[in-house]
Write a structure and sequence with these properties.
It contains 1 helix and 8 strands. A hairpin with a 3-residue loop joins strand 7 and strand 8. It is elongated, with a radius of gyration of 19 Å. With 119 residues, it is mainly β. The strands form 2 sheets. It has a 4-stranded antiparallel sheet, with no helix packed on it. Strands 5-4-7-8 form a 4-stranded antiparallel sheet, with no helix packed on it.
């Protein structure tokens, strides 16, 4: 009996493992660290844009993800303390078709900007 059940259990574990389709992207520059992740295809995508540069507190931060399926944008006057980051969640049904790397354009303090590529 156990010999008959074991292949079925193994097949189910394989199917469950393949259907999770997690997303984990990361990019970093001298000033910024960007992470994009989710736990499963139907769940929200988590975005974290963290300032890692030398300035005390960047202001007037604007960001634009320039992907085909992953393309949120926004701005924030002042980053949340103590981590100096912007974090939010969004949904995208088609992120599997995204072309990598995804450029992320970030502007801050009205006169500085960088493009980070997440993959």
């Amino acid at each position: 009996m156990r010999r008959k059940i074991l292949p079925i259990v193994m097949m189910l574990l394989l199917l469950v493992g393949c259907s999770s389709e997690k997303l984990s992207l990361h990019g970093e520059s001298v000033n910024w660290n960007v992470s994009v992740s989710n736990e499963n295809k139907n769940g929200p995508i988590s975005f974290v844009i963290r300032y890692i540069g030398e300035e005390d507190q960047p202001r007037n931060v604007r960001y634009q993800f320039a992907g085909q399926a992953i393309s949120p944008s926004g701005s924030m006057e002042k980053l949340s303390a103590p981590y100096k980051e912007i974090s939010f969640k969004s949904y995208s049904n088609d992120y599997e078709s995204e072309t990598l790397p995804i450029p992320v354009h970030i502007q801050w303090n009205r006169d500085q900007e960088e493009t980070i590529y997440v993959e």
